[in-house]
Amino acid sequence: MEYASIINFLEKIGKIANLDEAELELLKTPQHIHQAELEVSGKKYPAFRVQHNNARGPFKGGIRFHPEVNLDEVKALAFWMSLKTATADIPLGGGKGGITVNPKELSKEEIEELSRAYVKAFYKVIGPQVDIPAPDVYTTPEIMAWIRDEYEKLVGEKAPGVITGKPIEAGGSLVRDIATALGGVYVLEEAMKKIGLSEKTVAVQGFGNAGMNAAKLLAERGFNVVAVSDSKGGILNNNGLNIGELIKTKSETGSVVNYSDAEKISNAELLELDVAVLVPSALANVITAENAGNVKAKVVVELANGPTTSGADEILHSNNVLVLPDILANAGGVTVSYFEWLQNNEDYYWDAETVKTKLKEKMISAFEQIWQKYSGSEHDFRTNTYVLAVKKILDAERARGRL
Ligand code: GLU
């Protein structure tokens, strides 16, 4: 994702929401950009922390370890986090971090050293009431625990709320591991009630954390998951897949394509299947102006970030396909991060049922706010989601007297 596309996007939203120049400028400009060069085993790695907006609360967003991380992308992702926390209606702002590194080329010890070096570079600008990082692409709960440990060493006090997505034994929250998928499922069920959709066939693209848990949760709730895929390809059985068996196949053989009781299909074919619900949970830009006209699903749940291009959006909208956009559909992750932070700050830990109940309340109320704005509006559900998020940020800026 490029920052230039954020600028284009903001211009479009600005027209719909009647934003003035000062408001647009504020949204386009991250509040702080922090950069460093980290050294591990004689090699140098560029590292970033971008703090986009904190009008609604401390900056919040993951740290990505990936060879393609660059400042432009981190800026764009920090902006999306401001929108996501506003959409989820949690009292946090938006930020993002990253290190340009291929973690697969490093030993575990080197990854730990790199993670600790990141904290040494940025500990003065993060903190439980300032900026709270979390996992993102290729960063794990274990890394979060190292980051907490290093931060506490440097500031000389206990501070579990400096980072979320930690393992349970290091101050993590129950349910955080399935939170992205579960949040998406809650929103989907609510949306189906609104549009009166009772057909429960599903295709899930991607079988990582989000896709696998979505397939599992949906099957448990009586949906008929007929197709799934991963990077090696997809499988289809119109009578339904046995998700338990499928998870076993994936962990034993590395791919869902080795599941025996199904026919093989491509990732592209999966998107065009005759199902009620489509759940893109892997890559960006998979539903495009070229294939959007062939999407037969009535609802698309974006568990991946940015799976639908803007050209595709218009086609889906005119074909009456309801797209539940990423900043709502996958906001369950950051919402349970917020719960983790609350539990850390109070030093009081909730049971799994409590976390699930509170997540459900949050997701449904976020969905309901947008639905009310969307019904009767000439714009699609995504546009309404973005306009509402941007307005919440600007209202908070105004209330503080910064605008
Ligand atoms: N990286 C995740 C996201 O993009 C989680 C962020 C968080 O939990 O703070 O939503």
CATH architecture of the largest domain: 3-Layer(aba) Sandwich
CATH topology call of the largest domain: Rossmann fold
* Outline: globular
How large, in whole angstroms, is the Cα Rg? 21 Å
User: Looking across the biggest beta sheet, what order are the strands in?
Assistant: 9-8-7-6-10-11-12
Number of helices: 14
> How many structural domains are formed by the residues?
2
Q: Regions with pLDDT < 50 over 5+ consecutive residues? A: none
| Mean pLDDT level | 97
Largest sheet: 7 strands, mixed
CATH superfamily of the largest domain: Leucine Dehydrogenase, chain A, domain 1
Ligands bound, unique: glutamic acid
Architecture overview:
This protein is of the alpha/beta class. It folds into two domains: 3-160, Rossmann fold (3-Layer(aba) Sandwich), CATH 3.40.50.10860; 178-324, NAD(P)-binding Rossmann-like Domain (Rossmann fold), CATH 3.40.50.720. 46% of the residues lie in helices and 17% in strands. The chain is built from 14 helices and twelve strands. It has helices spanning 3-16, 21-28, 71-88, 108-122, 141-155, 179-195, 209-220, 243-253, 267-271, 310-318, 326-329, 332-346, 352-374, 381-399, and strands at 32-40, 43-53, 59-66, 94-100, 131-135, 201-205, 224-230, 233-236, 263-265, 277-280, 299-301, 322-324. The strands form two sheets. A seven-stranded mixed sheet has the order 9-8-7-6-10-11-12. A five-stranded mixed sheet has the order 1-2-4-3-5. The relative contact order is 0.13. The model has no long low-confidence stretch (mean pLDDT 97). The chain binds glutamic acid. Glutamic acid is lined by residues 60-62, 84, 134, 136, 164-165, 333-334, 337.
